[in-house]
Amino acid sequence: MGKRVGMEVSIAAAEMVGLCDVDVIAAYPITPQTHIVEHLSELVADGHLDAEFIPVESEHSAMSTCVGAAAAGARTFTSTSSQGYALMAEICYIASSLRLPIVMAVVNRALSAPISIWNDHADLMMSRDTGWIQTVAENGQEVVDLLLHAFRVAEDHRVLLPAIVNLDGFTLSHMIEPVLLPDEDEVKRYLPPYRPRLRLDPEKPMTFGPVGMPEVYTEVKKAQDEAFKASYPVIVETWDEFAKVFGRRYRPVETYKSEDADVIILTMGSTSETAMTAVDKMRAEGKKVGLVRLRLWRPFPFDELYQALKGAGAVAVMDRAMGFSGGAGPVCTEVKACLYDRAFYPYIQNYVAGLGGRDITVENFEEIHDKLVASMKRGDPMGYEIINVRE
Amino acid sequence: MGIAAEALKDFNGFNPKKLPEGEPLSPGHRACQGCGEILALRQVMKALGSNVIVASATGCMEIVTSPFPQTAWRVPWIHVAFENAAAVISGVESAYKVLNRKGRIHQPDVVFLAYAGDGGTADIGLQALSGALERGHNFVYVCLDNEAYMNTGIQRSSATPYGAMTTTSPPGKKSIGQRTWKKNVAAIAAAHGIPYVATASPAYALDLMNKVKKAAMVPGPAYLHIYSPCPTGWRYPTDLTVEVARLAVQSKVFPLYEVIDGQWILSRKIAKPKPVSEYLKLQRRFRHLTETEIERIQARVDAEYEELLKRCVTPEKEGKASKETEE
Ligand SMILES: Cc1ncc(C[n+]2csc(CCOP(=O)(O)OP(=O)(O)O)c2C)c(N)n1
Ligand code: SF4
């Protein structure tokens, strides 16, 4: 049986990665990710985890080293944030194109400038088209569970894609929370030993990462896209199996009091817990409001999201990052794309909040709700607004 | 005894009459005629044999050997990006270490090779190389130095020699071509205190292959800087590659040496050097240089060679070591 512990979420994340019998960890420090790799290096130093911990000289090399290790057949992990993630980005594309099941925790943090160590989703959005499976955790338990799931789904031979678990910097990574940590046997029951399909092996030589001329590049990308789409049912299936072993059921989209709601607030990440409190409060005041939360960000859960939103008259999509598209934030853009070709189309407004660590409060969600209802009544064009700006 | 000397105490050099027959890098690649890089790489691979995993940086050698679905590689080979060959091989080597330790594989003797051009080594890849050398991974790093970014069309690198014409260091009314002197990456590698560093040239094939073998034998990182003339970029006839490479050594432009456990050892002393002008005049990339500039280059080459001699503890007499190096 696993054990219930009160633990900083970063430490719990590292403990979970340790339980997964990871072989190679290559990492570089950046706030607020540091505690995860610090604790992993302790686990290795103390002999609790038999792995190679490689303190590389940059995030670019961290991901490059992970690519080499995964190609050689090792279960591989890294973690980063913000600027480090940006520095890695070049190799992130390559990791997914080479179909290497690397697992990474991204502790979300704002991107410079101005330099900010605090949380928003700018780094998460920067990487949305890198071809990695991406989940977004709401609390410590999810961080732990989603990490275990990430190894399982990434290494599935029907998938073979790298996977990211996103967690909000500080507001989640540095919280002390009660977490159920599984024991080794439970982990073994869920996560089989890593068996690479192809590896760098002198006994069976193979060429990895050759040049793609115009005659083949498109076909390779199509194959990658098909693999990416095909990962979706496997993600759901492996979550269902997770429920069988651990009793906790995960779905790509989470709903809270949304079935009969007129107004839906849509969030992603740890603010969802604040949003729930706000929903409870507004429900008590007789407002028919509900919450929809995205847990799976890539591949995007188009059908589930439609199912979750189709009963609502209006949707407030919250973004924790700027889109600089001139139209809407990145989450809202996806939501609109998801609904565009459906028979129904709710009224949507986009609210950008919580940039660079600014708190998102229960009052903010009430404000979002009221603003949405007011603009719908006025018949405002659907657009976006940055809220909670000091004037 | 240092770790490299210890590992090399029973070293057996290659025999000129009987070279390894295997060609881990097969013919049928697409390098230009007379390419010095592919010649050097072939010698490297012959010396290493087949129990090897190779990580390539982006550059000429990556492009010409791997147009999908073809490959010139008979050994496992991976290309990831331009600046990270040393980091990629760090991961491969670490994976083998831990998988052997955990008993998941039984392949303890695999050799790990990373190679890049001078751009991927001296410039954009220097940080990853330095990191991997400092961390002490057991691998061989080969810089195939053709003194410019050839793959993208002959742009200058920090290993381009003073005065050379490239497409980003063109000579003109206000320019003599490359304005800076060549960066000494072998010395930078040696400054990391790694067990083995050497310079080599495909014109001295046995010397090159023996150095590769030594590099693979020493535990920990080894760095080889291999001079690799490029007829396309240097503008000389394609049948002169070996000649140009040999002249570079004979004119002291590219001296051959080893650094074993921190001790610098000249591979062959050049007692009667050829004039640098003889080397320069074969290549059209130096065609625009005036007598004064050539004298300046000669003076610099002489001074650098003197510096090297001072560093070397056991400068070999000409002719002694050259038994092995002369073909
Ligand atoms: C990050 C990045 N910047 C630039 C390039 C473009 N690029 C590819 S190969 C190359 C030059 C390679 O030169 P060198 O390392 O000297 O090898 P050579 O082609 O001469 O063998 C450049 C600039 C790239 N692939 N990646
Ligand atoms: S450009 Fe030079 S280095 Fe590149 S393949 Fe041709 S000869 Fe070789």
TrEMBL record, chain A:
Residues 261-364 form the Pyruvate:ferredoxin oxidoreductase core domain. Residues 20-231 form the Pyruvate flavodoxin/ferredoxin oxidoreductase pyrimidine binding domain. Signal peptide: none annotated. The keyword Oxidoreductase applies. The keyword Cell division does not apply. GO terms for molecular function: oxidoreductase activity, acting on the aldehyde or oxo group of donors. Gene3D superfamilies: 3.40.50.920, 3.40.50.970. Keywords: Oxidoreductase, Pyruvate. GO terms for biological process: carboxylic acid metabolic process; response to oxidative stress. PANTHER family: PYRUVATE-FLAVODOXIN OXIDOREDUCTASE-RELATED (PTHR32154). This is Pyruvate ferredoxin oxidoreductase. It comes from Desulfoglaeba alkanexedens ALDC. The gene is porA.
